[in-house]
Amino acid sequence: MTYPIFLSPFIINPSIPIRWYGFMYIVGIVCSLFILKYAEKKKWMEFHYIKNKKGEKEGGPIDMVFYTALIGISGARLGYFLLYDPLAFLTPWEVLGIYFNNGIKFSGFSGMSIHGGIAGGILGLIIFAKKYNYKYYDVLDISTLLISCSIFFGRIGNFLNAELYGRLTDSIFGMRFPLYEMVGGYEKWIALLPALRPYTEPRHPSQLYEAFLEGIVSIAILYVLTKHKDKFRPGTRTWVWFILYGTFRTIVETVRELSEWTIGALTSGMIYSIIMVVLGIVMLIYIYSKKEAVKDKK
Predict the structure, then answer these.
(1) Which 3 state secondary structure label does DSSP give 70?
(2) 10 Å Cβ neighbour count for 136?
(3) Cβ contacts of residue 219 below 8 Å, gap of 6+?
(4) What is the pLDDT of residues 167-179, one digit of tens each?
(5) Can you state the percent helix, strand and coil of the chain, rounding each to 5?
(6) Between the CA of residue 206 and those of 84, 124, 150, 210, 213, what are the distances in Å?
(7) DSSP letter string over 136-147?
(8) pTM of this prediction?
(9) Residue 7's closest CA among 111, 158, 206, 150?
(10) Which residues pair with 266 in a beta bridge?
(11) 162 touches 7 (CB < 8 A)
């Protein structure tokens, strides 16, 4: 199976360098706003708006998504270097995508860590909850749908960019991905005769595996839990999501291309994800072992 020729890393064309992956951040943000509006309508999340000095409403879905996205994206960028390339902090301008090679060059934010993004997103939600006087778990629980939705679009963006594909395989799922950079970029690659365009050997389309498991399957499970949230204690969806994401990511790591450090057969992504699973299990046990804990009747 060969990567579809009609797909391109660029939404319009290379002369307008807007790539799918970056655009998917915007799609994820818009999707998150729609989910929160729907959740408010279904009374899965009750927002208590306040008015600022200008008389404008604050503390609603827009502010919640703003804090989550801003600090989450920052966490994803910083997390990439902290978790995978800490020596980069010796040249901190590179963290900002700035390089001094024959002049100043901005390379964009290539290098984002989903685990760093998760940590940043949670921090953003906590700040939002603290500022606008929400219960932490009310905010964190509903955000599991937002995060899963954003991960889905992010992985689709990776696929459309023909990046982060998996390991070599001879299975029926194997796909030959285009090697744009081998010939100097997409424009030069597409200008070649079809027979001369370089491709990888068949590899797992691991981006699609993650989009399905971490996105669609997780959203389906969390939707059911959210719909029946009164049957569960606050925090249940948060830690169930930790277990879901950690488990699915660990599974997909077995076919993802090795790109960072490993410890034996364990990849760095596996280790961080296993920690998430263990933390999720421990916290669920803690939540349900507390005698004073009661079901959220809101």
Answers:
(1) helix
(2) 16
(3) 145, 148, 149, 152
(4) 999 999 999 999 9
(5) 60, 10, 35
(6) 20, 29, 17, 6, 10
(7) HHHHHHHHHHHH
(8) 0.84
(9) 158
(10) 263
(11) yes
**Hey, what amino acid is at 43?**
K
Residue 287 in 3-state DSSP?
helix
For residue 107, give the nearest of 117, 99, 118 by alpha carbon: 99
Amino acid of residue 110: S
Average the pLDDT over 42-62 and give the result.
Answer: 85
pLDDT of 194-226, one tens digit each? 999 999 999 999 999 999 999 999 999 999 999
What average pLDDT does the chain have?
87
Tokens at residue 59, please? 């503390």
Contacts of 244 (CB under 8 A, 6+ apart): 214, 217, 218, 221, 222
CB proximity list for 242: less than 8 A, separation 6 or greater: 276, 277, 279, 280, 283
Q: Where are the domains of the chain?
A: 20-167+204-289
Tokens standing for residue 57 = 């409403």
As a whole number of angstroms, the distance between CA 241 and CA 219 comes to 9
